[in-house]
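Hi support team,

I submitted a single chain yesterday and got back a structure, but I'm not sure I'm reading the token output correctly. Could someone confirm the output below corresponds to the sequence I sent? I've pasted both exactly as they appear in my results page.

Thanks,
R.
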Amino acid sequence: MQGDGWKNGFLVKMSESWGTITGYSITQGHVVPVERRGCYLLRYAVQRTKVSSEETILACPQDSPQWAIVGHELTRTDTGQHVSAGLIPREAGIHVP
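Hi R., thanks for writing in. Yes, this is the structure output for that exact sequence:
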């Protein structure tokens, strides 16, 4: 799911089925490299009236002073169901003998 389908479809309908947001807490945030730009990866927990989730947003600077959300993912804490759109970097561990 991308763009308008994500924003106007999934995210709008999410409050209908998951309930309204009752609280949130930021769990982690750091700068990550994406295409030679310093983007910001923010992880946070959201509590809603029916379901809680762990979410991640990736925001990158544009050519102007504005930033754009280029990735978003959600994981339900009760079932582990996961959905994402756009770019979300993954950490890779390297084993050194």
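A quick pointer for reading it: Residues 34 and 60 are 8 Å apart (CA to CA). Let us know if anything else looks off.

Best,
Support desk
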